[in-house]
């Protein structure tokens, strides 16, 4: 792990794209938070993706007589109340969590970013209207809004993704809009107007490349939050549906067996915590590297 | 000022500060920046020393090291700082606290951010007194009121209870000066005390400093980038360049007989109100301070330099023992023999300008304050009348200068003329066509013919796009050209603004401020426009770079026969480049005329105030300025009648208050057009400016 | 500072508009999305005739905007309907349950304010030192570990067979079991919520304070020779705490989400648990009412914070725009 002093300057950029990428990767790796975050995330992602190869058992396969086994022996991390291998279930459980985190964030970004850029650049009444609507959506606490949507659409991974994306869209739009407002002040935007560029060109060719840093930072932090919200939904029985393994759901069933074995509860908790922690660290670290000026997101 | 009698009739000279061979380095990810090298300086009681330098010269670092307040990554690597014969580096915390504010006081650069926004200004002063002196709260408050009076803040009891945001910039700066003076410090450090202030406000602060010099016995260090500020206030001056002292000595000596090529270059690069002359820019740019090469730091840019300048250690040499005039130069006697001096500019008589109208603005108004839906229901605030009825013409090939202080609406007017802002009322015609009724092809035609260059070079180029592409984009949009033609034109443009063709593949962050501004100018000229609005194009540049850009603009004007609207707050710059000048105040044009007629009587009272406030490079000038009372009124609620009547020194009463003066034409001998919007008659406007 | 009546009036109009929008959203989600109320009440195997009769009774055959207006007007007049699941008036149900959740929220807010703000200030003052590193490091755990994990962990430790000092869940009112009993049921949920929210607020305080300690006016204060204690406590904290008021109101949002989960973990019969139950049983009237209530509380908390902020901050003299 790199121990260099955290650098607080903007990304130094080189001549070519490749150079810039090299410099970027270097500063990302030499940032302590990024490094810790990546150290946590890399093995988790690899193990999860390779779950079908690595997992010793089918995650839904029950082993009669081996319920709630302790770690060691035949089962690396023990078994659950139905005698299913915890190691395999934790590996597979990561798939739904990561899938949910990435897709719901992606969906929310694909809606929130254009809304934020457009609203911020156009300004005036249109902006006022859009932002009022976003504020309203944000005045329902995020988990409750997600709950409400899932309640109505029915539980399940897909519906959870839709719900979380809906909840995060206004939050992303707000952040993107405020970055847009500051870039909009720059004189090169006025120069573009002076040569008669279209609004679309200005929004997406002039502004967007210049707010890519806060957008990336926001995205990586959001993935962590999305996984957390998704796990909460699963914990409440509204996310991924059994028998598909899922960390949140595993914790909720482990809850009923807390006094018999601690392992059943512990493993999914540790993996879930480590994943969210990894994304949080990565996001904050990226903020240091890419965009030191933007303060910590005040929108939760 | 009495520089002449230096140093015999001064009070007992006691050295109060001795800086010896100070070096400071900042650690950065790309290496150590040697911000100061071998800087020596001495200061005596009651003396005012100016430290002048362009950006990157290390002048602020010097100020902060005197206060022992360097950033965490900055470190003194060598040298000593003795205050009253005592080394102040590595003082224990408590002693340092007793030193700061009590013995060495500091007035920071930006008054707006330097006062605590949530404490009344009076409390911020009296807490300093309470901290350093054994006084009761009551005594501290009385002292605070007194000191507020000293810095000419009226009604101290009332104003002490104000929060910073309730005071104007000039008032805030007075509060900061009062704070610094509150414990009678022996050394006062003023860090760019007037930068960011309007010229009339600056004049008042400079007058205040002058007064304080007389009434306090404080030694003063005044740090600035502006040589004219030094000329007005200082006894001695130290010229810093790239972290080294190039020259130091009495102000009169340095300004009249500079013995260093850099000083000479600086003085030759500054436009002056008093004479028309060509500007001599200093070629090249400031060296990279992470790798200092042997020899003279200025050698690369110096026209006197010879081979031996680039090696060995350059030491300080004495020019005149009597006045303690020193220079860091091996060729100083050559430089004195044949100094760098700008040529007198050939009269730019309206040879290239015609009387054919290119752009005409009639009664143009631009109000801001798009109220939200609910503001309208609840009766929102009145709009900001940024531009309030302006008539203006720009002829073909002509440069019209537009001067005014911040907030007068000059930039808004510039943007409105280019249809970058929607006009509120009035009519703008360009080449005989009303620009408000243009169809889309007409608008494109207009855009290709009317362009703009902005103030801040660092924000005027898209940081994510290569220079070449940024130059080609307007060509693609505004001209009928293929890729090869665009490429060719781009190279031509780079060449015209004096940049090598390999700049095309660079990103903006690889360019210096001056280079970026050249690219921005090239971009504006891409489609060969007939009219360019230059919105403070040199205001954020160092003087040596400013001269380069001004010369470039003059050259391009000849080349393309374009018209300029040159917007600036700097009278000397405007005078240098303009054929005609318009003076703007609170959204209205108060005076317009040929370059010559503006600077000669008769004057509009506001123009008179501006001219007399404009600082001068002549250290011998006696200052006797027109002082403007009060603040600029809010453009939300401009005064009735003449907009200037609330501050006008020649205010006549009811007529000024109720009747708005029209621009009336003044007859001139040589047929120049000259118009003034004032109720006073010509004779009353004609008084000389007492200087 | 003076807050003008005009500003307040304007804010109120915005809030009313906001609340109307929220009600439309809540109504929209509960009505438009798949899932049919009549079917839910009667069960999956009801005959179509029965369903359509009930639909008529419930007014579900009316056009959607009529349904909305009916719904809103009865909501505003206090008739919030009857819970499908509990067969009790929704209003009574929510008041009883809401009060219990309110205890959790208020106590948690008090704890996090008194802990996280000082911690944030300390971390900022010792910026980049080991102390800062420790505090920030721990705060990452607080942010990253979900409340149901923390809650369960606390259960294992403090309510388990080994070291069981607290009941594993449930609730006893003060009138039933006395204040000790009541408290013992509240300690663990509040601790869980505190761990969740403390990190948010602490980090935001820290960021704010770090920025302020770098500001020009702090330099002015130091350069006039004030001691560091005065600089921090008088000059920095005063400015640093103003936004915290707003942040507190905002952290109420994540706190409310947290309460839902925490009540589930500790089987605490509050509003959160009621919401989760109603979700699983599709008890639409309860859902609509409770979500609306939560949004109302949240909106008014933000309004209150704004007003307090304007009183604290001399820079803002209202009369101008709401932004």
Structure description:
The complex is a heterotrimer of chains A (300), B (691) and C (323). Chain A is mostly helical and 300 residues long. Helices cover 68% and strands 0% of the residues of chain A. Chain A has a single domain (46-58, 74-289), classed as MetI-like (MetI-like fold), CATH 1.10.3720.10. Chain A is built from twelve helices and no strands. The longest helix of chain A is centred in the middle third of the chain and has 37 residues, at 86-122. Chain B has 691 residues and is of the alpha/beta class. Chain B folds into three domains: 15-103 and 185-337, Rossmann fold (3-Layer(aba) Sandwich), CATH 3.40.50.300; 114-184, no CATH class; 358-615 and 624-686, Rossmann fold. Chain B contains 25 helices and 24 strands. In chain B, the strands form four sheets. In chain B, strands 6-7-8-3-9-10-12-11 form an eight-stranded mixed beta sheet, sandwiched between helices. Chain B has an eight-stranded mixed beta sheet with strand order 18-19-20-15-21-22-24-23, sandwiched between helices. The longest helix of chain B has 18 residues, at 543-560. Chain B is globular, with a radius of gyration of 27 Å. With 323 residues, chain C is an all-alpha fold. In chain C, α5 (90-125) packs antiparallel against α6 (130-144). Chain C is globular and about 85 Å long. Chains A and C meet through α5, α6, α10, α11 and α12 of A and α1, α6, α7, α8 and α10 of C. Chain B: GO terms for molecular function: ATP binding; ATP hydrolysis activity. Chain B: Residues 336-357, 614-642 are annotated as: Disordered. Chain B: It comes from Haloterrigena salina JCM 13891. Chain B: It holds the Pfam family oligo_HPY.
Tell me, briefly, the overall form of chain C.
globular
CATH architecture title of the largest domain in chain B: 3-Layer(aba) Sandwich
Largest interface: A-C, 51 and 59 residues
Low-confidence stretches of chain B: 1-12
Using only C-alpha atoms, the radius of gyration of chain B works out to: 27 Å
Task: Tell me the name of the CATH class of the domain at 99-280 in chain C.
Answer: Mainly Alpha
Number of strands of chain C: 0
Global outline of chain B: globular
Helix % of chain C is over 70%
Percent strand of chain B:
15-25%
Quaternary structure annotation: heterotrimer
* Tally of discrete structural domains of chain B: 3
The end-to-end span of chain B amounts to 14 Å
- Poorly predicted residue ranges of chain C: 317-323
Distance between the termini of chain C: 17 Å
């Amino acid at each position: 792990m790199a121990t260099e002093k955290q650098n607080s300057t903007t990304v130094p950029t080189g001549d070519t794209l490749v150079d810039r990428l090299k410099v970027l990767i270097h500063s990302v790796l030499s940032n302590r938070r990024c490094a810790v975050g990546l150290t946590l995330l890399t093995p988790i992602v690899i193990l999860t993706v390779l779950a079908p190869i690595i997992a010793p058992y089918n995650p839904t396969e029950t082993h009669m007589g081996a319920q709630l086994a302790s770690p060691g022996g035949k089962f690396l991390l023990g078994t659950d109340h139905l005698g299913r291998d915890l190691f395999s279930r934790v590996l597979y459980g990561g798939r739904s969590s990561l899938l949910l985190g990435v897709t719901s964030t992606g969906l929310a970004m694909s809606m929130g970013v254009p809304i934020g850029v457009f609203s911020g650049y156009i300004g005036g009444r249109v902006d006022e209207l859009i932002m009022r609507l976003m504020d309203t959506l944000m005045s329902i606490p995020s988990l409750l809004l997600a709950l409400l949507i899932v309640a109505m659409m029915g539980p399940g991974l897909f519906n959870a993704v839709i719900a979380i994306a809906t909840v995060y869209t206004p939050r992303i739009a707000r952040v993107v809009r405020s970055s847009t407002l500051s870039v909009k002040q720059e004189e090169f935007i006025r120069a573009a107007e002076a040569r008669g560029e279209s609004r679309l060109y200005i929004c997406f060719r002039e502004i967007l490349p210049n707010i890519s840093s806060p957008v990336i930072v926001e995205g990586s932090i959001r993935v962590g939050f999305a996984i957390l919200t998704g796990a909460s939904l699963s914990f409440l029985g509204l996310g991924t549906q059994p028998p598909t393994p899922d960390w949140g759901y595993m914790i909720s069933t482990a809850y009923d067996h807390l006094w018999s074995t601690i392992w059943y509860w512990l493993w999914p908790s540790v993996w879930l915590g480590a994943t969210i922690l990894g994304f949080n660290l990565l996001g904050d670290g990226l903020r240091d590297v890419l965009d030191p000026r933007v303060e910590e997101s005040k929108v939760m | 000022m009495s520089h002449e009698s230096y140093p015999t009739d001064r009070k007992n000279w006691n050295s109060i500060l001795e800086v010896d061979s100070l070096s400071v380095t900042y650690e950065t990810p790309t290496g150590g920046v040697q911000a100061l090298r071998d800087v020596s300086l001495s200061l005596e009681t009651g003396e005012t020393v100016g430290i002048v330098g362009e950006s990157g010269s290390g002048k602020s670092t010097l100020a902060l090291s005197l206060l022992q307040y360097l950033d965490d990554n900055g470190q003194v690597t060598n040298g000593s700082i003795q205050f009253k014969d005592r080394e102040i580096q590595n003082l224990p915390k408590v002693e340092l606290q007793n030193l700061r504010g009590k013995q060495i006081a500091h007035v920071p650069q930006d008054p707006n951010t330097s006062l605590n926004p949530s404490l009344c200004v009076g409390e911020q002063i009296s807490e300093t007194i309470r901290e350093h002196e054994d006084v009761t709260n009551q005594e501290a408050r009385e002292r605070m009121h007194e000191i507020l009076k000293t810095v000419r803040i009226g009604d101290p009891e009332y104003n002490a209870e104000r929060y910073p945001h309730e005071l104007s910039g000039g008032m805030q700066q007075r509060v900061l000066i009062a704070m610094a003076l509150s414990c009678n410090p022996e050394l006062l450090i003023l860090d760019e005390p007037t930068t960011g202030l309007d010229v009339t406000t600056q004049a008042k602060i400079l007058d205040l400093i002058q007064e304080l010099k007389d009434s306090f016995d404080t030694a003063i260090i005044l740090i600035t980038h502006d040589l004219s500020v030094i000329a007005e206030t200082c006894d001695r001056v130290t010229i810093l360049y790239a972290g080294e002292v190039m020259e130091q000595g009495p102000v009169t000596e340095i300004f009249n007989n500079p013995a260093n090529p850099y000083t000479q270059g600086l003085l030759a690069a500054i436009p002056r109100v008093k004479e028309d002359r060509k500007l001599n820019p200093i070629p090249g740019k400031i060296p990279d301070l992470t790798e200092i090469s042997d020899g003279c730091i200025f050698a690369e840019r110096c026209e006197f330099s010879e081979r031996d300048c680039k090696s060995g250690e350059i030491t300080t040499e004495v020019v005149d023992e009597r006045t303690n005039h020193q220079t860091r130069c091996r060729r100083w006697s050559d430089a004195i023999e044949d100094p760098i001096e700008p040529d007198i500019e050939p009269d730019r008589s309206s040879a290239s300008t015609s009387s054919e109208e290119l752009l005409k603005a009639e009664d143009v108004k631009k109000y801001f304050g798009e109220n939200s839906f609910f503001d309208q229901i609840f009766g929102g605030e009145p709009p900001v009348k940024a531009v309030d009825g302006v008539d203006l013409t720009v002829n073909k090939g002509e440069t019209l200068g537009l001067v005014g202080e911040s907030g007068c609406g000059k930039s808004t007017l510039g943007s409105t003329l280019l249809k970058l802002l929607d006009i509120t009322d009035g009519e703008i015609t360009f080449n005989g066509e009303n620009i408000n009724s243009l169809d889309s092809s007409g608008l494109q035609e207009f855009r290709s013919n009317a362009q703009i260059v902005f103030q801040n070079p660092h924000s005027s180029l898209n940081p994510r796009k290569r220079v070449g592409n940024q130059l080609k984009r307007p060509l693609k949009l505004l001209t009928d050209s293929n890729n090869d033609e665009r490429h060719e034109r781009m190279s031509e443009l780079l060449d015209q603004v004096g940049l090598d063709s390999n700049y095309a593949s660079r990103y903006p962050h690889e360019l210096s401020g001056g280079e970026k501004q050249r690219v921005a100018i090239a971009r504006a000229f891409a489609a060969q426009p007939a009219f360019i609005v230059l919105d403070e194009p040199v205001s954020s540049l160092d003087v040596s770079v400013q001269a380069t850009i001004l010369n470039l603009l003059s050259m391009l004007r000849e080349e393309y026969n374009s018209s300029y609207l040159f917007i600036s707050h700097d009278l000397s710059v405007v005078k240098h480049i303009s054929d005609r000048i318009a003076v703007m105040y609170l959204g209205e044009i108060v005076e317009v005329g040929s370059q010559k007629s503006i600077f000669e009587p008769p004057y509009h009272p506001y123009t008179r105030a501006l001219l007399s406030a404009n600082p001068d490079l002549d250290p011998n000038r006696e200052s006797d300025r027109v002082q403007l009372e009060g603040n600029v009124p809010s453009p939300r609620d401009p005064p009735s009648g003449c907009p200037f009547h609330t501050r006008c020194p020649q205010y006549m009463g009811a007529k000024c208050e109720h009747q708005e003066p029209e621009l009336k034409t003044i007859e001139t001998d040589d047929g120049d057009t000259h118009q003034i919007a004032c109720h006073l008659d010509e004779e009353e406007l004609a008084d000389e400016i007492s200087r | 500072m003076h807050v003008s009546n005009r500003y307040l009036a304007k804010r109120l109009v915005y809030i009313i508009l906001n609340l109307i929008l929220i009600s439309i959203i809540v109504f929209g989600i509960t009505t438009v999305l798949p899932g049919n109320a009549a079917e839910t009440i009667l069960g999956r195997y009801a005959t179509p005739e029965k369903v359509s009769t009930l639909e008529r009774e419930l007014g579900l055959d009316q056009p959607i905007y009529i349904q909305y207006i009916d719904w809103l007007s009865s909501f505003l007049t206090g008739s919030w309907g009857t819970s499908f699941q509990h067969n009790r008036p929704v209003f009574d149900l929510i008041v009883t349950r809401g009060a219990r959740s309110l205890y959790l929220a208020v106590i948690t807010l008090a704890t996090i304010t008194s802990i996280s703000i000082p911690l944030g200030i300390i971390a900022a003052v010792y910026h980049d030192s080991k102390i800062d590193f420790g505090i920030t490091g721990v705060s990452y755990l607080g942010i990253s570990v979900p409340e149901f994990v923390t809650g369960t962990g606390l259960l294992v430790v403090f309510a388990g067979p080994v070291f069981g000092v607290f009941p594993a869940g449930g609730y006893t009112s003060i009138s039933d079991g006395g204040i000790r009993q009541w408290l013992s049921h509240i300690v663990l949920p509040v601790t869980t919520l505190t761990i969740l929210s403390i990190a948010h607020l602490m980090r935001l305080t820290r960021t704010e304070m770090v920025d302020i300690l770098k500001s020009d006016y702090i330099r002015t204060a130091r350069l006039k020779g004030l001691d560091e204690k005065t600089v921090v406590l008088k000059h920095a904290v005063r400015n640093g705490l103003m936004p915290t008021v707003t942040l507190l109101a905002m952290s109420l949002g994540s706190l409310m989400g947290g309460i839902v989960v925490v009540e589930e973990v500790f089987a605490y019969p509050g509003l959160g648990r009621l919401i989760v139950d109603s979700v699983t049983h599709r008890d639409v009237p309860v859902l609509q009412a409770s979500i609306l209530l939560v949004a109302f509380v949240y909106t008014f908390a933000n309004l209150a914070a704004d007003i307090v902020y304007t009183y604290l901050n001399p820079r803002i003299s209202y009369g101008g725009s709401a932004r």
